[in-house]
Amino acid sequence: MTVGTRAVVTALGAVTPCGLTMAENWDAVVAGRSGIGLLRDVDVSDMTVAVGGEVRGFAPLEHVPRSDARRLDRHALYAIAAADEAMCDVEIADPYRFAITVATGSGAVSLTHEATRRLDADGPRRVPPGVVVYGGPDAAAAYLSQKYDARGASVGTAATCASGTVALGDALRMIRHGYADAVLVVAADDCLNRVNLAVNSTLGALAPGYAEAPQSASRPFDRDRSGFVMSAGAAALLVESEEHARRRGATGFAELAGYGTTSDAHHPTAPRPDGSGAAEAMRLALADAAVSVDAVDFLSAHATGTPQGDAAEAAAVQRLFGSHAASLPLSATKSTTGHLLGATGALEAAFTVLSMRDGVIPPTLNLDHSDFPDLNIVTEPRDSKIEIAMSNSFGFGGHNATIVFRRR
């Protein structure tokens, strides 16, 4: 049950394969303009994977000094850029009431890989000492806290592909229980490298092939889906107490009203087939927001395009929503953006509040033959007044996280 101060989302930012700002991303997702293409920045000639979502045209020196651009991992640079967009023209009155969380599934992988190559090739004295500072999952949070003079909690959060949503849920609790006036939640990942691509391909998680038609590779809920498409990028959301936002004249996109999280406790990579853990996370989020299942107007699905994951989420939706599942509009934007791993929950949360603002549900691409005809999966942009919306994130390790938004 909701208690204490209400939390509102007041600012957004994003860097993804679909664009370098949130506006560019939202335009692309609504238009169904895919950011997925042939991988060009990493050699995959000896792998089955050929496509991914690479960030194009990114200029780190617009956000950090040259010395920091050399030291920081790519995921951190994306995080800083997304945060800069969200924090443009924002001033927080009390720095000790301003917290920052950066969520990531894998952290500073490119930095760590380069340090390992340097160690093997040149010996320990050639390993940059900055790796100990910039190589941790909290590095971007520490950097941003200094950049914005945020003197409240500064942490890194990791829950694989649910990381961004877990961070938003934690932000809600911090605001609700009075530990902060504002929390900048940023989520970022960049695993487009030979190691991570090889591992995920070996697991059978990535969609193989599609060199001739890369934009058709991400196929959530489609009968011919064969795995997810890995992407890089970041998203940022500023969450404030309603009172703090009002004092500085910010109206906000939507209220962050509920959060639920569970663990499947089942398998390192596979979800529970019956969707029970995911359904419980959704139930807890609705209860936290004091919302009934039949009041939900839109569901942003996790829906990566893996056969097991999509089936478990569909089972969870039907398990929780019952007869309402057939009419509940559902969309899977990973068909456009690819899967940003730990960043995906924050990005899809941003898309969800923009859906509420603009009254439009973005389409699910590549759904040529639905494997779940009993679900109301949106395949064309659909005008819809959305009062209550839900966003799901599920990840390896059995992480389940759901957040609920209420229209302002």
Description:
The protein has 408 residues and is an alpha/beta fold. The chain folds into two domains: 8-247, Thiolase/Chalcone synthase (Peroxisomal Thiolase, Chain A, domain 1); 258-407, Peroxisomal Thiolase, Chain A, domain 1 (3-Layer(aba) Sandwich). The chain contains 13 helices and 15 strands. It has helices spanning 22-31, 66-71, 74-87, 109-122, 131-134, 139-147, 163-176, 194-202, 242-247, 276-289, 307-321, 334-337, 344-358; strands at 7-15, 37-38, 51-52, 98-103, 154-157, 182-189, 233-241, 254-263, 298-300, 329-331, 360-361, 376-377, 382-383, 388-395, 399-407. The strands form three sheets. The chain has an eleven-stranded mixed β-sheet, sandwiched between helices. A two-stranded antiparallel ribbon has the order 2-3. A two-stranded antiparallel ribbon has the order 11-13. Strand 9 (298-300), helix 11 (307-321) and strand 10 form a beta-alpha-beta unit. Helix 7 packs across helix 13 (344-358). The longest helix is centred in the C-terminal third of the chain and has 15 residues, at 307-321.
